[in-house]
Design goal:
By secondary structure, the chain is mainly alpha-helical. The protein is about 70% helix and about 10% strand.
Length: about 100
């Protein structure tokens, strides 16, 4: 049953990362309790949350590198992360609250 939950979560994050990247970031934040679901991949212990973060980062990197106008986006750094501003601020806020 755990594998079904993990695979479903990874597929949802992957689809959101392709079509709505900002929502995928929020999906990671919403799925933060999934750190409790532990599994092993090739003998390496990991959690469902870590797998979701890895999937999101890989899909972000692939989509980012596929774009031909990469140089223009790098020059305008603020506009590059503008759609992710609120998810990043929420993540930072939750991190600060959990640290306190």
């Amino acid at each position: 049953m755990t594998i079904v939950i993990i695979v479903t979560y990874l597929l949802a994050v992957a689809v959101l990362a392709v079509y709505r990247p900002a929502w995928a970031s929020l999906g990671i934040i919403v799925g933060s309790p999934l750190y409790l679901l532990r599994t092993e991949i090739l003998g390496i212990p990991t959690t469902a949350l870590e797998l979701g973060i890895y999937a999101l980062a890989i899909i972000f990197a692939i989509n980012w590198l596929r774009q031909h106008w990469l140089a223009a986006k790098l020059l305008n750094f603020y506009n590059l992360f503008k759609p992710y501003r609120w998810p990043l601020l929420l993540w930072l806020g939750f991190t600060l609250i959990s640290a306190v």
